[in-house]
């Protein structure tokens, strides 16, 4: 089973992915958690660092970001995810190609069709349309509060202004509607959001 948890920065995707992984592992399942675009694969992590450099901005072209993110995805899927799924395991990913639709498409202005065409031409339908998925929704105000409390160094897209973040948020809403992906309000506690996800996924 391939599960994807998506959403804007600060919505708690990684936390929820790990909680779900713990839930399935407690049942004796083999589980792999991914955090696109790095996912603890060295070559993908190097691509991650090139795009999402902390405290720097290489000012890469949007099309370059698209190609690099897609390259990282191909490595993660083929080297890590696919072998686990073939053996009957579970893969839970914080982000997938919908992030590129939101950030490079709605945020940076690359035509949505171009992103869809590239992704579907290089990655299998099992990746493109996960078995279970959800997009976590959070207001800009709440997202900023969480970033302040986390106290981490912000990455390339996190430091972009309100106009860009608004485009990304609206992009996720459009993606959810266009691809029929369920959304979950992420303003509650970690436990409350986790309960919503389990109910949605019927687990």
Radius of gyration: 16 Å
Proportion of residues in extended strands:
5-15%
Shape-level CATH architecture: 3-Layer(aba) Sandwich
Number of helices: 9
Question: What is the helix content?
Answer: 55-70%
Give me the strand/helix succession: EHEHHEHHHEHHEH
What is the total domain count?
1
Classified in CATH, the superfamily is P-loop containing nucleotide triphosphate hydrolases
Largest β sheet strand count, sense and barrel closure: 5 strands, parallel
* Mean of all residue-level pLDDT scores: 89
Name of the CATH first level: Alpha Beta
Backbone structural class: alpha/beta
Query: Could you tell me how far the N terminus lies from the C terminus, measured between alpha carbons in angstroms?
Result: 12 Å
The total strand number stands at: 5
Main β-sheet, spatial strand arrangement: 2-3-1-4-5
User: Spans with pLDDT under 50 lasting ≥5 residues?
Assistant: none
Shape: globular
CATH topology: Rossmann fold
